[in-house]
Amino acid sequence: MTTLPQLSNKPTAHKTYWLVALGALAWIIAYQIYEPLAEWLVYGAFRLPEDSRLSESLAFFLADVPKILLLLSGMIFIISIIRTFFSPERTRALLGGKREGIGNVLAAALGIVTPFCSCSAVPLFIGFVEAGIPLGVTFSFLIAAPTINEVALVMLFGLFGWRIAALYIASGLTIAIIAGYIIGQFKLERFVEDFVWKIQSSADATIEKLTWENRIERAWGAVREIVSKVWIYIVVAIAIGAGIHGYVPQDALVGIMGKQAWWSVPVAVLIGIPLYSNAAGMIPIVSALIEKGASLGTALAFMMSVVALSLPEAIILRRVLKPQLLIVFFSVIGIAIILTGYLFNWIM
Prior knowledge:
By secondary structure, the chain is an all-alpha fold.
């Protein structure tokens, strides 16, 4: 019997690595020229005066669109590769058997790198219950995953620097850990819908073994998918931010969202709850508000309430949570976000 020679995939692997290297080089070049190009278009090609509101708004728009899209694409690629090491099955395995306390910390940390969206809240919740993960630990994960959003992280880093991005991560983790721990201490398992406890745990799913080529392909696919879905929100949000930047009087925003208005943080959270937007649609608006004098804590509390306390997620979670637990869940997060807003205002 003749044995067929095995085909090597090394040429394909080398091609993939070269494409990644060329893409990284193109990204670096584009990131270096976007701001001078925007200024040349506004003040050179369009010949707009430097002190006009229109030129300020247009320069803001033309500079921020490529900047945010470049940052978003680069960070999604990197984070998506990291996420290939943390499938939902592996996450449940890592959290299984962990008690509250250390379990809340681990769950919140895993929530940052594990794929999550509002539509996956119910199956993830059921899967965690099947795995015997305590309720409070489960909630730490469910809070951290949407709250600490890679899009928001990228934009905060690009617009405000690493200190604000680090504070955003730290505050999100703190909220997830403390809120999950508090919910766990209340022993609210009786307020989970009865059918959830009756679902039998299925056999352990086989964890995929991925090569680096597979990881790169999935990361590039994630970049295409996410950017194609959010780019329009980014452009619209930056346009709104540009309008705020050029036309909204600074004194008006300072009076409404400044540090002097003690009530601004809870009001911002209450306003954000009924709104629904992703982080891509919020950060440019937050940036423009802060540039016009809004306090950092108030603006971030507004953003976090829109992202973490959205009505669509409440409606989805209602399928597995009774109203009492849903109210506790959102109340604890809301209070934590308000306290975080005050903390940011005090620190900054």
